[in-house]
Write a structure and sequence with these properties.
The protein is built from eight helices and 32 strands. It has 611 residues and is of the alpha/beta class. The chain has three domains: 27-200, Sandwich (Jelly Rolls), CATH 2.60.120.260; 204-287, Immunoglobulin-like; 300-456 and 507-606, Glycosidases (TIM Barrel). A hairpin with a 4-residue loop joins strand 16 and strand 17 (289-294). Helix 3 (338-351) packs across helix 4 (365-374), helix 5 (394-411) runs parallel beside helix 6 and helix 7 packs parallel to helix 8 (592-604). The structure holds (2S,3S,4S,5R)-3,4,5-trihydroxy-6-oxo-oxane-2-carboxylic acid.
Length: 611
């Protein structure tokens, strides 16, 4: 930890996560009203809104003309500037807020929901970075911490004919947060993903998971349903998968849960990158129905192999940050609509990928749903990043656990998601080991159908030219993953990479979860010259060649698909606050190394030499 990082005292507990409802699953299959669009926005760099109760509230009309002696109110929502939700404030502010990190207040009015009667309502935020303080009609609903996962508040008894929703979002970086105060990506602030008013019947299907597993007797489909509401117990639930001619019932127990289990039909087509088959699924009770499209697949490891549907697979991957692929240099930002997500993933497909590492935090639900459609296996990660995490702070652990639970809840029915990663590049200390082991135990308890991993980069016994995979955390992981920058950071040149040898104390498969060099598109020179496309190409050739000699390296997710904004990249000649390790530039131009990875994925990755 760097001195001075503790200069911001931790927030009092009452300003931490509180008031949340259990997250309703399958948002996109529910009745809901989109609250995206134009909101009002006020910058509150001194954070008075949190201390003085305003600008949480809508000012009653007559208060604006308060007589002398009446309350003095120094803000006015109706004339406050517009902002678009979803979207970060950094890239939609005419540069005024480009570097702003702090508190910003959003306000949106919305009418009473069109349906009336016996319904329940939830305000559902797909994400707000980093801490969100939410108020409805002047009353606090609660607080959520964590910039990349969904959260919801129940507002059933709180809606009026003309509602005022006020949200304070604070993206001030701080030791104790997850991530901490220093990360190599841009800290886009605000309500970065859509906000919805979700409506459900009084007793609704709060959570449902449909999985496939290979038992000794053959493949089994299991569906677990949890109801929420007054009639949650002792209620019949039906699972229908019309294309498999499946219709089965079960009745919930006293805990509101029911499990339906059946042998998978022989003609079930399994989901895979080659055939990303999704089946329409309908779950219903007398009151509620949710529909989704779900793929069936198994993922496991055996010895040095990763097995998808029982078959060894080489993970032909690429790492991706959630940042829009722009058409101009100043275009990228954190707001991604369907087309933006599709554009990034289409670039991954063009490279020949069957796997994407969604770094270093949960990406939007649109992205994982598109990965289901496109046949891209997904590594999903929470932002427990490097050494700047308060590994011995119980509150920080709670936040990380909650994020992990939220992303698992959201994506448990995405066949594409095959890996939960609990961290990236964390130090070899006891507090870190305890912290990550707690997360791993949580992930296994919540979801036994995926692999657990973490990107490692530390070692006890490594030397410059022998990399030893001996991080004690390796014992807890299903899939090992290692980030290497030999040939970029450190004394070795790309020409030295092929003399590197690899040894692992674990009998497990591993992927190279990162490698890369900065190269600015269009900068050319001899291959020994840093920052050039030639240097990057040479580095890729050497690293891939070296990795391909190691039989237990079963995949790659090089760093990274696209150049991305980063506050750590200060060189004005090549970087200008962009990390230039992309295989394509921020506007999509392919660098020379792109072809190297493409050709490897095209011709060699599945060849016996790569096994
Ligand atoms: C890493 C980090 C990644 C950085 C990358 C770099 O090891 O995991 O977040 O962006 O290196 O470019 O240095």
């Amino acid at each position: 930890m760097v001195d001075g990082l503790l200069s911001h005292p931790p927030l009092p507990q009452e300003l931490r996560t509180q008031g949340l409802a259990p997250l309703p699953c399958n948002l996109y299959g529910r009745e809901r009203v989109d609250l995206s669009g134009t909101w009002q926005f006020l910058v509150d760099s001194v954070e008075r809104g949190l201390r003085n109760q305003y600008p949480r509230y809508t000012i009653p009309k007559d208060e604006k003309q308060a007589p002398v002696g009446g309350p003095l109110v120094e803000y006015d929502w109706d004339s406050a500037p517009d902002i678009t939700v979803p979207g970060d404030w950094n890239t939609q502010s005419n540069e005024r807020l480009f570097w702003y990190e702090g508190l910003g207040w959003y306000r949106r009015r919305f009418p009473a929901p069109p349906t009336s009667g016996d319904r329940r309502y939830f305000l559902y935020f797909e994400a707000a970075n980093y801490r969100a303080h939410v108020y409805l009609n002047g009353s606090p609903l609660g607080v959520h911490e964590g910039g990349f996962t969904p959260f919801a508040f129940e507002v059933t008894d709180k809606l009026v004919s003309d509602n005022s929703l006020v949200v304070g979002v604070n993206n001030r970086r701080q030791y104790g947060n997850v991530p901490g105060s220093d990360a190599d990506w841009f800290n886009y602030g605000g309500i970065t993903r859509p906000v919805w008013l979700v409506s459900t019947p009084p007793t609704f299907i709060q959570h449902a998971v449909v999985t496939l597993r290979d038992a000794e007797t053959g493949p089994i489909i299991t569906c677990t349903v949890t109801l929420d509401g007054r009639d949650a117990a002792d209620t019949p639930v039906t699972l229908r998968i019309p294309e498999l001619a499946i219709e089965l019932d079960a009745t919930t127990g006293a805990d509101g849960r029911a499990t339906i289990e059946l042998p998978a039909p022989r003609h079930l087509e399994r989901w895979s990158p080659e055939t990303p088959r999704l089946y329409p699924i309908v779950l219903s009770t007398a009151e509620d129905t949710i529909a989704d499209r779900i793929g069936f697949r198994t993922i496991a490891t055996r010895g040095h192999d990763v097995l998808l549907n029982g078959r060894s697979i080489y993970l032909r991957g690429i790492s991706i940050h959630e940042e829009r692929l722009g058409t101009r240099e100043d275009d990228g930002g954190r707001r991604l609509d369907w087309d933006d997500s599709r554009r990034l993933l289409t670039e991954a497909r063009a490279l020949g990928c069957n796997f994407v590492r969604l770094a270093h935090y949960p990406h939007s639900e649109k992205t994982t749903r598109l990965c289901d459609e496109l046949g891209l296996l997904v590594w999903s990660e929470i932002p427990v990043y490097q050494e700047d995490i308060a590994y011995d702070d119980p509150h920080t652990l709670e936040v990380a656990r909650q994020m992990l639970a939220e992303i698992i809840t959201r994506d448990q029915n995405r066949a594409s998601v095959v890996v939960w990663s609990v961290a990236n590049e964390t130090p070899l200390t006891e507090p870190r080991l305890r912290f990550l082991r707690t997360l791993i135990a949580d992930a296994r308890a919540q979801d036994s159908t995926r692999l657990i991993s973490a990107a490692l980069n530390r070692s006890i016994a490594s030397t410059l030219t022998e990399i030893v995979i001996d991080d004690p955390l390796g014992a807890d992981l299903d899939l090992l993953a290692y980030n290497t920058y030999a040939g970029w950071y450190g004394p070795l040149a790309p020409g030295d990479i092929t003399s590197i040898t690899w040894r692992s104390i674990y009998d497990k498969p591993m992927i190279l979860s990162e490698f890369g060099t900065d190269a600015k598109f269009g900068v050319h020179g001899v291959r020994e010259a840093r920052w050039t496309e030639e240097y990057q190409r040479w580095f890729y050739e050497q690293t891939i060649h070296n990795a391909n000699t190691v039989p237990w390296i079963r995949g790659l997710s090089p760093w990274i698909l696209k150049d991305f904004r980063s506050p750590r990249r200060y060189r004005t000649d090549y970087q200008n606050y962009w990390n230039r390790k992309g295989l394509i530039s921020e506007t999509g131009q392919r660098k020379l190394a792109w072809q190297v990875l493409h050709d490897f994925y095209q011709h060699q990755a599945d060849a016996p030499a790569a096994r």
